[in-house]
Amino acid sequence: MTEPPTRRRAPGMSTEQRRAMIVAAALPLVAEYGAAVTTAQIARAAGIGEATIFRAFKDKEEVLAACTAEAMNPHHVQRELASISLDQPLADRLTEAAEAMRAHLTRMGAVAGALHASGHRRDRTPGRLPGDRTPGRSPGDRAPGDRPADSRETAMRATRDALTELVEPDRAALRLPPERVASIFLGMLFTQLHFGAEGAEADPAEFVDVLLHGTLRKPGSGT
């Protein structure tokens, strides 16, 4: 008698893969509800049982910390900047870069703002999260999702370097070196997003036009 073929089980997710999947599902919910989001909501969005969350994370606070870290992760936008074709005109390259940077910063702001508005606060003890029950954590330890200052500086430098590469092919046509243009680009973009009036911010193409050509009309041109 021929035995039926043995069914092979699909390989299970690693803990890191499961964590990444949960964070991807949780991020839009955290941006909408802040700390008020429930693990039941996250589980439904991820298509998993609620208990699965607690096999990957210690508690909801750790999920929120991982979402914050993911929202602030610069690697995504750096990959987008690296994928922009250098064959395009400079204005088009920088417009794509502005769109990518704006999306990244908007996501960061949405997550941080929602958490703040929902009353989510760090404990006064450095390195701890509200409700953190991890024993043995000393005051100097970082909570999940924390990033040291040198990490932020490294990320900003890598982003500036990626922008510099986008500008470099047009070095001969510029009054300033590409690295300086990249720094001004970032400074203008951060300032506009942080301090611009709602609804009054320039679209990416207009922003890049001002960066490259200023706001003054050319003498005698009427434009």
What is the rounded distance between the termini?
88 Å
Structural class label: mainly alpha
The radius of gyration over CA amounts to 23 Å
Q: Report the uncertain regions.
A: 123-146
User: Helix segment count?
Assistant: 9
Mean pLDDT: 83
Helix content: 55-70%
Identify the overall geometry.
Answer: elongated
Secondary structure: number of strands: 0
As a percent range, the share of strand residues is under 5%
Sheet with the most strands, sense and barrel status: none
Helix and strand succession?
Answer: HHHHHHHHH
Summarize the structure.
The protein has 223 residues and is mostly helical.
List keywords for this structure.
mainly alpha; elongated
